[in-house]
Amino acid sequence: MKKIALFALLLVIGAAAGHAQESRQDFSISASGIIEPYVTSTTDVKVSAKRGVGALFSYRFMLTPRGAIEANYQYIQNNIHYVAPSYNYTVNTQLQEGSAAYVYNFTYKKFNPFVEAGAAALIFYNVRNLETTTLDVKSQTLIAFLYGGGIAYEISPSFDIRAQYRAFLSKVPNFGDPALTTNQYYNIYNPVIGVAYHF
Description:
There is one protein chain. The protein has 199 residues and is mainly β. Helix content is 10%, strand content 60%. It has a single domain (24-198), classed as Porin, CATH 2.40.160.20. The chain has one helix and nine strands, in the order H-E-E-E-E-E-E-E-E-E. Mean pLDDT is 89; it is low at 1-21.
């Protein structure tokens, strides 16, 4: 009886150790940038933006050996410029992203390319300071389509370096001011590089 109990205990410990080695989850911290393209519209409003920098935090859970779901939070600060025949406005913004995506992984030795697609909520907070030249703007939340791809390089069983290109297809924000409306969609480019920890 004792031998059976000891065998069962060893079996449970072995299964737990094997499960721990699977590394079905990871958490990553990355430096990120934002590049918003120049936009013209039928409303005579032209929009451009300065490059912004920030940070991206991501959590992935592997559903299968190749497929995972991912949750993201990102914070970036930059300026958006609106130009029309009657004005030239700048809005200093803090962009926050909350998103979820499906990630499909490939494996080639220590390199793991991946592609992803999902949905994001982009919250454009206007910052009331000397860089914001109009007081008629308000914070605005937009729903965007997230897509991208990248590559992870395994530096140890627990860590990898991850570089990726992400993009958001979103409506151009007007911050609640009809004078800034473009009625246009644009791609926000979001290059990212960071470190992931697998557990």
